[in-house]
Amino acid sequence: MTITLTPAAAKQIRSQIAKRGSGLGLRVGVKSVGCSGFAYTYELADEVRAGEQRFDAHGATLLIAPQNLLTLDGACLDFVTEGLKQSFQFDNPNVGTTCGCGESFSLKAGAGKGVAA
């Protein structure tokens, strides 16, 4: 099981935790939503929940719930600036298609079995 993050993503995670004043890392998940089926979720985390997998890189921590591990296996989290828009973005080999607005995605056949809704 491999999930990586770029130095830019790690820097943004550390920055958000510093701005907030506390935190352990970034909790990332997948939920059912949108026109294509799934969307990523992000929240700052103060603790590791039961069963969560922890990934550390570049001085930052990602926390992933067990039901999301297969969907995110092999993915890389980046933090990208495009014009005035800044956002976390995944390069995820398990994604089949994304919707026109880019907010939701579908999985390739057989990828991400066991994703929680």
Explain what you see.
The chain has one domain (4-107): HesB-like domain (Hypothetical Protein Aq_1857, Chain: A). It has helices spanning 7-20, 69-72, and strands at residues 4-5, 25-33, 37-45, 53-57, 60-64, 76-82, 85-91, 95-98, 105-107. Helices cover 15% and strands 44% of the residues. It is built from two helices and nine strands. With 117 residues, it is α/β, with parallel strands linked by helices. The chain starts with a strand and ends in a 10-residue tail after the last strand. The protein has a four-stranded mixed beta sheet. One of its GO terms (molecular function) is 2 iron, 2 sulfur cluster binding.
In DSSP terms (H or I, runs of 4 or more residues), the helix count works out at 2
The CATH architecture is Sandwich
Helix content: 10-25%
Quickly count the domains.
Answer: 1
**Radius of gyration based on Cα positions:** 14 Å
Instruction: Specify the structural class.
Output: alpha/beta
Mean pLDDT: 87
Q: Strands across the major sheet, in which order?
A: 3-2-5-4
The outline comes out as globular
H/E element string? EHEEEEHEEEE
Ends distance = 21 Å
GO molecular function, one term: 2 iron, 2 sulfur cluster binding
GO biological process, one term: iron-sulfur cluster assembly
Family: Belongs to the HesB/IscA family.
Protein name: HesB/YadR/YfhF
